[in-house]
Structures are given as C-alpha cells and as structure tokens.
Amino acid sequence: MKINWGTGIVIAFIGFIGFILYFVIQASADPRAEHDMVTDSYYKKELEYQQELNASANLKASGGGVTVRRLPDGLAIRLPERMDPAAIRGTIGMYRPSDDNLDFEWPIQPGDSLQRIPSDRLVEGRWDLRIDWEYHGEKYLYRTRLTY
Fold this sequence. Notes:
Elements: H1 5-29, H2 42-47, H3 49-62, E1 67-71, E2 74-78, E3 88-95, E4 104-107, E5 114-118, E6 126-135, E7 138-147
Antiparallel strand pairs: 1-2, 2-5, 3-4, 3-6, 6-7
C-alpha cells in the first residue's frame, strides 16, 4: 500500500495529538502535581487582612522587633524585649508552601522572650513564619520567609 502526502500529514497530526495527550494525562495523574491552597480557609483569611495590617503596624509603631536565628538544635525566635514576656499570649505558625502536611502552630511560652522550635519539627527548605500575639489588649503580627 502506498501512502500519499495527505495521508502522511493526517498520520503525523494524529501521532502529535496522541503524544500531547499522553503527556497531559501523565502530568495530571502525577501526585507531585497536586496544587492545594496553602490554607483551607483562604477567603476567610482574605477578609481578615485589614486586621493583619493593623497588627503589623502595631509592631512597627512599638519600636520593637523580632529576631529569628537558626541554631544547631532548631530555631530561636526572640520577641521584642520592650514587652513583658509574662503578658504575651499567642502562637508561632510555621507554614511550608510546598507541603501543607508539614505546617504546624507552636504556642508562645509565657514568661520567656526567647522561643525555641526544635529541629525535629523543621525540614530543610523554605518556610513562612507567622507570629501572632496579644500584649495588653493590642494585637501584634510578625511575618517573614526563611530558609531552614
């Protein structure tokens, strides 16, 4: 059987379309290609954004800063020294953008301005750090990205 140029073009198009469909199916079936939202309550958090801006402004206006250092045994977070550690209540949130199964929240230990997160809770890579706390009725927020 002799194949003319028209039949060859049709066979080439069908082969190309099959090739593309194979890769689309492979990419969508691969579990590494799952793209979940970082938080389940994304839209609710969007509505609370102004409160976050106010809390960040409170931290800046207080003149105090948060310092984060990597230590051999984990992460050391120092809250503003101007604030009495006994009056601070809040949480430290560690969010892993690449895997929401690694996300966790750590309570701020009252009475200590130096907070420690052990290295067994942290995997090497990028983390989003979020510290929410309340001090004498004022809310404060500190956010940063870090590589552990």
